[in-house]
Amino acid sequence: MPKKNIEELKKEIKKLVSEIAEVSEEDLKEDAMFTEDLGIDSMMALEIIASLEKKYKLIIPEEKIPTIRSLKNVYDLLEEVYLKE
Amino acid sequence: MDETWDINKIQQILPQKYPFLFIDSVIDINKQEKKVACLKNVTINDYFFEGHFPDNPVMPGALIIEAMAQASIILYAALKPGVAEKHPDYYLGKVEAKFLKPVRVGDQLILEVSGEKILGNAGIVKAQAKVLNEIVAEAQIVFGVKPKE
After folding, report:
1. Where are the domains of chain A?
2. What superfamily does domain B7-146 belong to in CATH?
3. What is the pLDDT of residues B38-52, one digit of tens each?
4. Is any Cβ of chain A less than 8 angstroms from the Cβ of B122?
5. CB < 8 Å from A in window 54-73 of B
């Protein structure tokens, strides 16, 4: 299966995060902090990780999870894990 | 089954005690596939039937979720024995459940749980409760695990 390009990937990730976190895509700015600005708690963050793993068939290492604090962090992590696989 | 779980071990691992212990035995543990199956025998002696309901004893859906959550702790303990042996607190984060059939006196409730993501401090699992191989309830459960302070 050909890999998606980064813009396509970002669009999909944003939609997925918005659905799980119940934050509109409009409010989900790339730099907004999950906890402080968007009220996303650690359980939601875990759900986001699990959904990304399922959708893109990858494994995100446990030690990377605390580094995910904004949508931008998710993009960077996915770029690192998915595109360089 | 990778290991034996008798009722003593179940009681050691689960923080829930009588009258809130809803696992009678562990039927199967498959660590590789991150799956467990547990059993709860539903009997007229279960205290909740006194009120739910006097003329129509049906196991409360909330307690079926509790039984699935307890089976999830068994799975967690099988996969993360080092964390579980320190008796952490387990707390529910989110439950999405469906109830398909009533669970009645005499039923053997089989609780099958499979791990979607199991971490040192949390887990996401899919659970199915079955009676005679038919699904009576299913849920996705997100839970946190926190060491005692």
Report:
1. 6-83
2. Hotdog Thioesterase (3.10.129.10)
3. 999 999 999 999 999
4. yes
5. none
